[in-house]
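Below is a filled-in request sheet from our internal design queue. Each sheet records the structural input a requester submitted and the sequence that came back. We keep these sheets so that new team members can see what a complete request looks like end to end.

REQUESTER: design group, bay 2
PRIORITY: normal
MODE: inverse folding
CHAIN LENGTH: 141
BACKBONE (tokenized):
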């Protein structure tokens, strides 16, 4: 199989993977593979094809990054933001790590602010960072 076909198949696989993930980075990598397929079809050597793919993917992924950073304020707030959680106990008070009760389960949480908390105090979810909630004493706006 020639390089142009291999690059095109790689591009199709990457674009198909993008349909599952929705991150747009795989789309940029797929477009880069199509660019390399075009370079191969035009007769450029393999190192030049690889360079074309690298340049297109770098520009495309950087463009996605810039677009997301510019539009961060317009993105939807986290689904848990503003919901109440009940403070249970400190795991590491100086580091502001605690256990909270939220949606019927106990969660690890990072408490914002320096307020002293008693068990049963109501905190509000600001965001989720993996399995750790970010919580604060005041409800986020």
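RETURNED SEQUENCE:
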């Amino acid at each position: 199989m020639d390089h142009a076909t291999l690059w095109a198949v790689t591009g199709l696989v990457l674009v198909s993977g993008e349909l599952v993930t929705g991150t747009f980075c795989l789309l940029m990598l797929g477009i880069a593979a199509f660019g390399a397929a075009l370079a191969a079809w035009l007769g450029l050597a393999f190192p030049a094809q690889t360079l074309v793919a690298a340049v297109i993917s770098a520009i495309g992924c950087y463009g996605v990054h810039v677009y997301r950073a510019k539009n961060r304020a317009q993105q939807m707030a986290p689904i848990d933001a503003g919901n109440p959680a009940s403070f249970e106990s400190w795991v590491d008070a100086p580091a502001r790590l605690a256990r909270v009760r939220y949606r019927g389960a106990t969660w690890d949480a990072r408490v914002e602010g320096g307020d002293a908390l008693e068990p049963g105090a109501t905190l509000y979810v600001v965001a989720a960072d993996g399995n750790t909630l970010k919580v604060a004493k005041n409800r986020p706006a």
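SHEET NOTES:
- The chain has three helices and five strands.
- The CA atoms of residues 17 and 99 lie 37 Å apart.
FILED BY: M.R.
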